[in-house]
Design goal:
This protein has 132 residues and is of the alpha+beta class. It has 5 helices and 4 strands, in the order ααβββαβαα. Strands 1-2-3-4 form a 4-stranded mixed beta sheet, sandwiched between helices. The longest helix is centred in the N-terminal third of the chain and has 18 residues. The radius of gyration is 17 Å and the shape is globular.
Amino acid sequence: MSPALAVGIRLIELKELIMRGRHRTDIEVMMADALKDNGIEAVEQFPIRGRFGYSLDFAIPELKIDIECDGEHFHKEGNSRDRKRNWVLREYGWTVIRFRGNEIRENIQNCINKIKTTINKLKGGVATDGES
């Protein structure tokens, strides 16, 4: 197979993935596996309807926990869009927990521990902003 044909086939495969739904990043796959392995039930790509129309990477809707996996290429430190989104979600009662890609790749268990701590605090009625 020629290199040009291989590239063309790959582009078609990527287009099909996009048409079927949003492509999951490696850090989202790692987080999904870790959440499942630790018995944490979270909904992937949870839609928040309304004026802003956000899609949360992972949500625990009954506790209003938003778990975001931020890739370094797409999110700069202190991204104003992320700050606005965090503010809006908090106004609606959500706790936002953000993890950078390197945090997930280097020590996923620390991320899971932070999520578990937030779950326990919210179940116990202790408020937390949960943002990292």
